[in-house]
Design brief:
The chain is an alpha+beta fold. The chain contains eight helices and 13 strands. The strands form four sheets. A seven-stranded mixed sheet has the order 3-2-6-5-4-10-11, with helices on both faces. A two-stranded antiparallel ribbon has the order 1-7. Strands 8-9 form a two-stranded antiparallel ribbon. It is elongated, with a radius of gyration of 25 Å.
């Protein structure tokens, strides 16, 4: 039986459709790392949600404070633990450097924003908070108000409630923790307005995030795309490319392009015939 161009096109489209289905199954299966609960280690954006203001923490001076009393203006929140051997220190170093530069873009600490550093290790103490605050305070410009950067600790239940409310997933790994790194921006009402990821923060980017928080505006991040393309490797304390998922997506896009090309070519030939 002689095959017509239309029959050939239908056959190609059916074959490509089967390929698309197979690629979709690859994306769904991805890799063993993808089967881990995304909240176990990593970030799950809760943009627009309001943190629980009634949660109580202990400040570096030993005072117990309600979270709502520490968030009365745009607030930058960093989550660390004090004995962290890797990414926590670089994060705090970058925060301290960024705070030193914010005044150059007319953002005054205490007036325009506050900073909270919260330990997610329940064994950390106010004494540890005080030591860490003193260490970083010495790196800040003269006149930086001490009350503008507060270090907080809490019990495990409070830590769990707060980290879950902001979508910060971590897991204890022997004496240390596997965890992501981010700055979370809160509005004066405690609403999550932005997640700032990466290892460097530009003063103008921080200023924009703080202005948005002051106005209650929600800012998008690339966390969702990042989570699609990368998975967290606790052993290496880094993110690794999800090659299976990327290959599956590339195949999906390629096959879809073939379908469009074959369909368009068939229509052009039919137009010429008629």
């Amino acid at each position: 039986m002689e095959r017509t161009p239309k029959t050939i096109r239908v056959t190609i489209v059916l074959c490509v459709a089967l390929g698309l289905i197979a690629s979709a199954r690859v994306l769904a299966w991805a890799s063993p790392d993808d089967q881990i609960d995304p909240l176990e280690i990593g970030l799950s954006e809760h943009l627009g949600d309001t943190v629980a203001g009634e949660l109580r923490f202990v400040a570096e001076n030993g005072d117990t404070v309600a979270l709502r009393d520490t968030i009365d203006r745009p607030t930058l929140v960093s989550l660390v633990y004090y004995t962290c051997p890797s990414i926590c220190r670089p994060l705090l170093d970058e925060v301290a450097e960024m705070l030193s530069k914010l005044q150059a873009v007319d953002m005054q600490p205490g007036r325009d924003y506050r900073v909270l550093t919260i330990s997610f290790d329940e064994t950390d103490s106010p004494d540890g908070s005080a030591r860490l605050k003193d260490e970083y305070y010495r790196t800040l410009p003269n006149g930086f108000p001490r009350e503008a950067w507060t270090f907080l600790t809490a019990d495990s239940a409070t830590i769990a409630a707060f980290t879950q409310s902001v979508g910060f997933g971590f897991r204890r790994a022997e004496k240390d923790f596997a965890h992501p790194t981010t700055l979370i921006v809160l509005s004066p009402e405690g609403k999550i307005t932005r997640y700032l990821t990466g290892s460097e923060y530009l003063p103008l980017d921080i200023k924009l995030a703080l202005i948005e928080a002051r106005e209650g505006k929600i800012g998008a991040t690339i966390v969702k795309f990042y989570k699609f393309c990368f998975s967290y490797d606790p052993s290496g304390e880094k993110f690794v490319l999800k090659t299976t998922r990327i290959v599956g997506l590339s195949t999906l896009v390629g096959l879809a392009g073939i379908v469009l090309f074959v369909s368009a070519s068939g229509r052009r030939r039919e137009m010429k015939v008629h």
